[in-house]
Amino acid sequence: MAVTRRSFMHGLGVTGGAGLAYGAMASIGLAPTAAAAPARARGGQGMADLIGRVKGSPKVVILGAGPAGLCSAYELKKAGYDVTLLEARTRPGGRVHSIRRGTTETDLDGETQTCTFSKGHFFNLGATRIPQSHITIDYCRELGVEIQTFNNQNANTVVHYGGDTPLANNSVKYRAAKADTYGYISELLQKATNQGALDQVLTREDKEALSEFLSGFGDLSSDGRYLGSSRRGYTSEPGAGLDFGTHTEPYAMSDVIRSGIGRNFAFEFDNNQAMTMFTPVGGMDRIYYAFQERIGAHRITYGAEVTAMRNTPSGVTVEYAVDGRSRSVDADYLICTIPPNLVPRLRTNLPADVIQAHRAAKPFAAGKLGIEYSRRWWELDQRIFGGASNTDKEIGQIMFPYDHYNSDRGVVVGYYNFAKSHEVFEALPHKKRLARAVAQGAEIHGPEYAKNITSSFSGSWRRIKYSESAWASWEGAGDSHGGVATPEYKKLLKPVERIYFAGDHLSNAIAWQHGAFTSARSAVSAIHQRVMA
Amino acid sequence: MAVTRRSFMHGLGVTGGAGLAYGAMASIGLAPTAAAAPARARGGQGMADLIGRVKGSPKVVILGAGPAGLCSAYELKKAGYDVTLLEARTRPGGRVHSIRRGTTETDLDGETQTCTFSKGHFFNLGATRIPQSHITIDYCRELGVEIQTFNNQNANTVVHYGGDTPLANNSVKYRAAKADTYGYISELLQKATNQGALDQVLTREDKEALSEFLSGFGDLSSDGRYLGSSRRGYTSEPGAGLDFGTHTEPYAMSDVIRSGIGRNFAFEFDNNQAMTMFTPVGGMDRIYYAFQERIGAHRITYGAEVTAMRNTPSGVTVEYAVDGRSRSVDADYLICTIPPNLVPRLRTNLPADVIQAHRAAKPFAAGKLGIEYSRRWWELDQRIFGGASNTDKEIGQIMFPYDHYNSDRGVVVGYYNFAKSHEVFEALPHKKRLARAVAQGAEIHGPEYAKNITSSFSGSWRRIKYSESAWASWEGAGDSHGGVATPEYKKLLKPVERIYFAGDHLSNAIAWQHGAFTSARSAVSAIHQRVMA
Predict the structure, then answer these.
(1) Measured between CB atoms, which of A140, A243, A506 is closest to B406?
(2) pLDDT for position A49
C-alpha cells in the first residue's frame, strides 16, 4: 500500500506536475522516512495531506483567514502543527464574501451599507463559481460542503451591444445569436469548400466529412444554406394539435457578422468557465465556515489588525492590534496571506526588494451589485432561469440567481464588471450605483428591471477595507490571471528566512480560490519539508 | 383589469398562438360571458386556468393518471368539474417514473425487477429534463415542486466513436473536441476569407468583423492558425508558483475533421436541450405526486384496468377491472390519455377510422439502465460532475448523476438509447443488459466502470405494461417529435361525440411532458367551451 502510494507519487514527479491527484503536491514535503498519510475517509484524489506528522508541534502564525490562510492552517493542523490565525475582519473568507441579511460594510469612503435581503437570499460579492477541475471541489468534498450547479451558460439570456452596427442596442437571445452565427459561418465555410478554395489543405475525404459536420452544426438546408433554425427559439412555443409555435426569423448574414453578437461565445469554452460549473449551496462562504470549524474557531483571532511582522534570530514575531490594544505573537514560522498591495504598509524587516515586489501586484478594480426583487420577472416574463446577460455597457453583465427558482423573490447581480467599466461605479455612493445600473439594465431587459426592487447592496473591492483590490494584476503581465512569472512574482515564491507568502496572486489561477489553495499548499509543503528535513 | 386581460388575450389570438403567456391557451374555452379567472396567487405567466366556473359540476372521467390525465383533472377540478381518474398502475406519472428503492416492475416477458438503490438515490426511467420554455416549469411553480439544474452539457464528459477514422475508439473530452473543431473551422474560414474566396458575399467590412470573431471563437494565433488552446483543458491543472499546468496537444486538423468528434455538438443548441435545463429535486415523479395531492387521491382509482369506453346517448360509460372485479362508471365527458397503441385493444363504439388512426402511432423503442456505484469514480478519477458522454456504441450515452455530488455513491444511467440501439437491450433479460452495457461503458470510461456496482435496474418502454411504447412515432412523420400533422394525428384532435383524446402524441412536443400538458389543456379547454356555450 505504502509502496503503491510512493510509486504513484514518483510517477507524478516524473511528469513534473501535481497531476490529477492533487495530493501529490504535498509530496514536496515528503521526507523519505515519513510515514504514509492515513487513507482518506472519503477516498478520491488524495487530498493534500502533509505526509508525516511533525513532532513537538512547531508553531506557525498565519496572517489572514481568507482561502489561502485557512487552507494553510487546515493542512498544517492535520500534520500536527500549532497554528494561530490573525484576521482583521470579523469573519472568515476574505474576498469570498456572501452578502446576506445583516451583512454590514463600511467602505474606505466611509459609507456604510447594511444588507436587508430576505432570509435565505444572498449574492457572492467575491468568488461565485467553481470549475470541475479546481481543487476547490475537493475541499468541498473533504469539508462536507454541499455543492450545486452554477448556471454559467443560459441560452435564454441576452446579448446587448451598442455602437452603430445593424443589431446595435438590441437584446438578442443567446440562442438566436448562436444559431445565426453558427449557421452563417457554416454556410460560408461550406461555400468556400465547395468552390475549391481550400483544396490545398483539405482532401476530398476531409471535405466530405467537413460538409457533414457543417450541415448539422449550422442547421443548413440541403443546398448548404442557413435559412433560420428552431434553435433560435420560438416567440410562442409549439404545443398541442396544430399549434406549431411561432418561429423567429434569422437576422441577415451581414448584420450578424458586423454586429458581433457572437463576441462572448468563447466565454463558454474557457477552461475555467465551461459548464458544468459549481457553487456551494447557500453561498461561497460556506467553505470558509467549514474550514473554521475544522481548524477550531479558538485558533483564529478576528478583528486583529496586523501592524508588523519580523524575522527574529529564532523565529518570527508579529504585532497586531485588537480593539486598539497592541498585542504580539511569536512563532517558528509565518505565512503571510495579506493582500500584496497592503504588505508594504506593515512594519517589517523584509528586504527592500521584497517590499518592492509586493508593490508590483497592482490592485485590480472589480465589484458587484446585488439587487433584490420581490418578483422574479426574469423567470415569469422572460423565461430566464439563471445565467447571465452580456453587454458592452458599463455594467458588463447581469447575473440571474441560481437559487430559489420559481419562488417569489430573488437577488440579481446588476453588474459584475472590471477595470474602467467598474471604476465608474467604484466612484459613486451606493444609491447612485444602483440608479446607474438599473437604468442600464432596463435598456437590456425592459421596464420590469426598475420595478419591485426591495433592497440592494454593492461592493467595490478597491474600496473595501483589508482588501483594497479585487485581485492582483502583476506589473508587466498584462492583466493576466497567471502564466506570466514576472521577476517580482518569482521573488515572492521564496520565503524570507521564516516568512512565507501565499495567496492567489502567487499562483496561475489569480482571482480563483484554486489559486489561493494551491499557493497555500505550496507554502505549507515547503515549511513541512524544512521541518521534516 | 378584466379588460386588460381580454385585450391581452385578443392580442395573443391575433398572433395565432398561445404566446409566451400559456394562460392564453385556456382562452380557447373562454365564453364571452365568463368571468375572468381570479388572479393567481404566485403571479406569472397566467397559468391555464379555465376561465369561468361551471355550474352543476359536470362529470368527467379521465383514463390514465400520467401527465396528460393528471393535468386534465387538475385544470377541470379548478373550474368546478367532478373528475374521476382511472389508472391501471398503482402510482401516478405514467411514463414519468423515478426508479428508487422499492420500485418493482414485472415486464411483459415476465421478468420482475425490484430496485435496491440506497436511500435517496434514483434515476428517471422516463422524462428527466425540462427546458426553460416548457409549461412544465410553470406547473412546477404552481404546484410548489422544487426544481434544480439538470446538467445537459459538460465539457469534462467524453465523446467516443468507432470506425476506422484516425481518432476512432478514443475517449476525447468534449472540451478538447470542441476546442479543436472550433479552432480548425475558424482557421479554415479565415484562410478562405483571406484568399478572397468569399468576396462575392462578404464586404471588406464583413471580412474584418468575421476575422475578429473567428480569432476569438477559434482561439487562433495572430497569423490565423489554430495551434491548440487551454480550452482543451490540462492533464495537470495550473497551480501555484511556477506550476503552469500540463497542456494537452491538439489533434491534427484532418484527424479532427475526418473523425467527426464534433458530431454531437448540435445537441447543445437544440431548442429543447440547450442549457439551462431543469429537473425536480428528488425525481421527476415529484410533479405527479404534487398533482395527485391537489386533485385528491380519492378521485384516482389505481389498479383500474380499463376494458371498454363508449359514447352513450347521454354521455359516456367506461368499464374497468380492479383486482379482477368488473366495474363501470358513467360521466358526461371522457378524456382518454391511454397510450394510442393500446386504445385499439379496448372495447369501444368508436368509428373504425378512429381506431385505425390510433394504430398509426407506432410504439418507439427506448429505455434506460440505472447502475448504482458505491464509489463516484467519475468525479474522483475523471472529474466529471454530471452531464453525459456520447458514443455510437449501442449504449448511445452514459448519463452521470445530477445529484449527491461529492458523496460516496450514485446512480449512473448506463444507456439511454433508441430504436435499433435500444432493441438490442430490449431483447435481453436485465442481467445481460447490465453486462453488455458495462462492457461498452468500460471501453469508454475505463475499468472503474465495471467496479463497485452495488445494484441496477433497467426498463424498456415497449416491454413495460400499460405503456408498451416509449413514445409515439407517427406513421409518415419520420420519427419526428412534432410538426408533421399526419391525417391520423389530425383525426384524433377532434372528439368522438363526448370522448376526447389527449397525450404528448397529440402535440408538437412528443416525448416531452410539455406535449402532454398542452394536449391536456387543449382537451379540457374544448370541453369547457362546450359546457359554457
Answers:
(1) A140
(2) 61
Q: What is the ipTM of this complex?
A: 0.92
Kind and range of the H or E element at A416? strand A410-418
Q: Phi and psi dihedrals of A456, rounded to 5?
A: -160, 165
Inter-chain touch A188–B185, beta carbons under 8 Å: no
Task: Give the angle subtended at the CA of A419 by the CAs of A417 and A422, to the nearest 5°.
Answer: 45
What residues does B98 pair with on adjacent strands? Answer: B124
| Regions in chain B scoring below 70 on pLDDT | 1-49
Question: Which of left, alpha, beta for B378 (phi over 0: left; psi -120 to 50: alpha)?
Answer: alpha
Nearest to A466 by CA among A53, A77, A94, A79: A94
Distance (Å, rounded) from C-alpha A340 to C-alpha A405? 39
Radius of gyration over every alpha carbon of chain A, rounded to an integer in angstroms: 26
Residues of chain B in contact with residue A147, where contact means CB-CB under 8 angstroms, are 405-406
Residues of A within 8 A of B224 (CB-CB) are: none
Q: Which pLDDT score, from 0 to 100, does residue B476 have? A: 97
> What nine digits make up the cell of A520?
497555500
User: Which chain A residue has its CA at the smallest distance from B202's CA?
Assistant: A254
Nearest to A508 among B244, B518, B519 (CB): B244
Neighbouring CB atoms inside 10 A of B358's CB total 24
Asked if residue A29 lies in contact with residue A58, where contact means CB atoms within 8 angstroms, the answer is no
Q: What is the residue whose three cell numbers read 490529477?
A: A20
Show the cell assigned to B405: 455530488
Which grid coordinates are listed for A61? Answer: 502564525
| Model pLDDT, residue A50 | 77
CA B213 to chain centroid: 34
Cell, residue B523: 382537451
Which of A188, A276, A385, A451 is the best substitution to test chain B (most B C-beta atoms within 10 A)?
A: A276
Nearest to B263 among A213, A219, A483 (CB): A213
Q: Which amino acid, residue B514?
A: H
Pick from A231, A246, A265: which is nearest to B271 by CB? Answer: A231
Q: Using a CB-CB distance cutoff of 8 angstroms, which residues of chain A are in contact with residue B17?
A: 235-236, 239, 243, 245-246
Mutation target among A406, A510, A513 for the B interface, most CBs of B within 10 A: A406
Contact between B156 and A197 using a beta-carbon 8 Å cutoff: no
Per run of 10 residues, the mean pLDDT along chain A (length 533 residues) is 30 28 35 30 41 90 98 96 98 98 98 98 98 97 97 98 96 98 98 97 97 98 97 96 95 98 97 98 98 98 98 98 97 98 98 98 98 98 98 98 98 98 98 98 98 98 98 96 96 98 98 98 95 91
Using omega within 30 degrees of 0 as the cis cutoff, is the peptide bond preceding B276 cis? yes
Residue of chain A whose Cα is closest to the Cα of B68: A240
Cβ contact, residue pair A237, B178, below 8 Å: no
C-alpha cell of residue A233:
427559439
* Residue A456, H or E segment: strand A453-460
Backbone torsions φ then ψ of A48, nearest 5 degrees: -65, 50
The partner residues of B302 in beta bridges, in order of sequence, read: B87
pLDDT digits 0-9 by tens, B306-344: 999 999 999 999 999 999 999 999 999 999 999 999 999
CB B518 within 8 A of CB B28: no
* Distance separating alpha carbons of residues B486 and B340, to the nearest angstrom: 15
Report how far residue A81's alpha carbon sits from residue A87's, in angstroms, rounded to the nearest whole number. Answer: 19
Residues of chain A with C-beta less than 8 angstroms from the C-beta of B231: 269-271, 274
